[in-house]
Amino acid sequence: MTSKILIIKLGDLAEFIQMLPAAKLVRERHVGARITLLTTEPFQAFAERCPLFDVVEADGRPRDAKGMVDLIARIRAARYEMIYDFHNSPRTNNYFQALRPNPPPWSGTAPNCAHLHSDPDRARMNASDRMVAQVLAAGPARERQRRDAPPPDLSWVRRVWRDPPRLQPEFFGLKHPYVLLIPAKTGWPDGAHAALAQKIAARGAAPAIIAGHEERDRAAAIARAEPKAKNLALRADLFQIAALAERAAFAVGEGSGLMHLAAAAGAPSLVLFSRAQDPERNAPRSRRGAATLTADSLDDLPVDDVERALQNLGAFADVRLAS
Q1: Is 31 helix (H, G, I), strand (E, B) or coil?
Q2: Which domains does the chain have, with CATH numbers?
Q3: Residue 318, pLDDT score
Q4: What pTM was estimated for this model as a whole?
């Protein structure tokens, strides 16, 4: 009989991307298992294409008491061999408590669970490293030595879609080289992003602004300041953003979920942080390099400093920024 594994991850896009190395480790540990991901609707379509999961359930945050009862009943009836709670919130700890007195083997931070992850450094670890450590702690003793998580792997995006025209830069009118500018909801001022876009455009590279619903006004402001910029806010879905990032000359922006996605897809990245954001804990990972630039306050981070950092990153040598 095929064993069944449940992974729980309900958080934002950054945490979803950071979870992928741990999910890969779960797949490698439970060879042949049927792996279900319990998540939320924003990630359902993306996760359903990911080869790490066989089933995706998107009702991880029930809206009412009936939804909660139905969710717990479904988890109980599934008779999972193991549940990996990578969300580890009061909400998901309550899921564990609701499954008592005979819960499935559970990896997480819920009191009295079978595989309690109690590493004293847990709160200070990078999220990817923390979730990988949690998987290792639930396994055989010989595997429990802590190790850094590899970068998330999104190379499957083109493969599962067979690289159609909608995943090509030309679909958005982009030509190489192009640069992804990824503003967060708050952070580096619009004027600074716009000034960097102007420097990039002046050297013949195409600035492409990637933004979601909450950042669309910021994207519009940057595009107004630099007419050569392509404003892709709300135009590109997660698959398209990953495909664009894989072929981008580089990506630059604050540590948003979309920045994590771009870095994971392979864009060489420069990520802007304030010191209060704890770059060590929250920085994205990229197989092509993800550097960070930290300032006391992003409001005071000069464009020249960002330009200089980009110039010093060899991966970006094919884009000559204006001096």
Answers
A1: coil
A2: 4-143 (3.40.50.2000), 156-316 (3.40.50.2000)
A3: 62
A4: 0.92
